[in-house]
Design brief:
The chain is of the alpha+beta class. The chain is built from 12 helices and 5 strands. Helix 7 packs antiparallel against helix 11.
Length: 429
């Protein structure tokens, strides 16, 4: 187990509120202890010189190894050499004082040894250094004890036991605190990194959200344009086509000899009715309402009404047939099939030259299908270009997960089939 280098004494001193004071504490303590112990107990100058020399050596060792070479604090060999040298110097000073002066003042320097011991990289080394510090402290504490050897040894053992318990316990608690602090620091670093990643993810999500909103807006505008284009084609364009057809028929009726006032009036009335119906459907399309033929009736009834009006306008018989069990379907599906029928009938009127038309609405288990067949001239679906009406029909049916099929051949008529799925809840109903 290794101590976290971020909590070494040198760096702690640099972060302390008064770094100069904390850095000078070992030297100040050594000076105070020397001032107390040496002058009053030194018998002659040689003894004082030895004491001062040992004190100067301890100060020089700490100054040279720790203050003048701060880079050595992070190098394990230098730290080990420094701690061992300090223990040797302080131990010699304490033993010399206890033997010669019979005093234990220099035992306070064991606290300095203990503080520097915490710089060792392994906990086992720190505990060993703490044991040495307790030995030095016990020697100083029992320096002035008088009595027999057994008594002196007993007092020394008791003092050493107490010091070992206090020093090792304090070292263990400090190490545990450093480990917990290091773990908290790592957790904070990981949390900060996670927060930075989260912030980057949030910024990326915001950018993606803005892009999605912009694309959704563009898609909404495009869909609305397509809807309005289909509605204009299915209502105004077809209505105007019918109006033009009726007005042309009314013009031909007036050009006949003799003139046909009844026919002229019939065609004008039909054109007026078409104009009113187209205007109503245009307003409903703008308001996104259901078509008027679907108001208050089912799809089969609406198709019958559309086919009847188309037949009257174009003079072509149109028959509507319903197969299967009639049941409710989604309003959007009804709307799409009704528009598909109107588009198919409009194409028959414009291009097919048919004599009859059949519309079949088939209710199957999971689908509803619309088939519009005529006996007209037909065309080649592969060779002929498709107008907007058929494209709009395919888009509307495909938007509801349906499909459109067109079968035709020259001279063989045309069949248009639109099939839509029925929702599961509507099937059960």
């Amino acid at each position: 187990m290794t101590a976290d280098p971020r909590f070494r004494l040198g760096q702690w001193q640099q972060r302390a509120p008064w770094p100069t004071v904390t850095a000078c504490l070992p030297y100040a303590l050594l000076a105070v202890v020397a001032a107390i112990a040496l002058p009053w107990r030194t018998a002659h100058g040689a003894t004082l010189l030895v004491g001062l020399t040992l004190c100067a050596l301890a100060a020089a060792w700490m100054l040279f190894m720790w203050r003048l070479h701060p880079a050595w604090r992070t190098r394990v060999p230098h730290v080990v050499v420094f701690v061992i040298g300090l223990y040797l110097i302080i131990g010699t000073l304490v033993l010399w004082e206890a033997k010669v002066l019979g005093s234990g003042w220099f035992g306070f320097m064991a606290a300095v040894c203990f503080a520097y011991t915490r710089m060792l990289p392994r906990l086992s080394w720190q505990l060993a250094g703490s044991g040495a510090a307790t030995f030095i402290a016990a020697c100083s504490q029992t320096a002035g004890v008088n009595g027999s050897l057994l008594y002196h040894v007993s007092v020394f053992v008791v003092a050493l036991s107490v010091d070992v318990l206090l020093y090792l316990s304090l070292m263990w608690l400090l190490w545990q605190h450093e480990q917990q602090t290091a773990a908290n620091r790592r957790a904070l670093d990981e949390l900060s990194a996670a927060n930075r990643r989260l912030e980057a993810t949030i910024e990326e999500n915001e950018s993606l959200h803005q892009q999605l909103v912009a694309r959704a807006r563009e898609a909404g505008v495009r869909d609305e344009r397509q809807r309005m284009a289909r509605e204009i084609h299915d209502t105004l364009a077809q209505g105007l086509t019918g109006i033009v057809t009726q007005l042309q028929a009314a013009e031909r009726a007036t050009d006949r000899t003799p003139a046909d006032p009844a026919g002229w009036r019939r065609h004008v009335a039909a054109a007026t009715r078409l104009a009113r119906d187209s205007l109503t459907e245009a307003r409903r399309s703008v308001d996104a309402l259901r078509p008027e033929p679907l108001e208050g009736c089912r799809l089969g009834e609406a198709l019958a009404g559309v086919a009847e009006r188309w037949s009257v306008l174009n003079g072509i018989p149109a028959q509507v047939t319903t197969t299967g069990r009639v049941r409710s379907i989604d309003p959007e599906a009804e709307f799409a099939l009704l528009r598909a029928a109107q588009e198919a009938l409009a194409n028959v009127a414009r291009h097919a030259h048919a004599t009859r038309v059949g519309l079949t609405i088939s209710y199957m288990e999971n689908e509803v299908a619309l088939d519009v067949r005529d006996d007209g001239v037909g065309f080649d679906p592969a060779a002929s270009g498709h107008g907007f009406g058929l494209v709009a029909m395919r888009q509307r049916i495909a938007g509801l997960s349906g499909r459109v099929q067109v079968e035709s051949e020259p001279g063989g008529g045309t069949a248009v089939s639109a099939c839509l799925p029925i929702a599961a809840d509507l099937v059960r109903s």
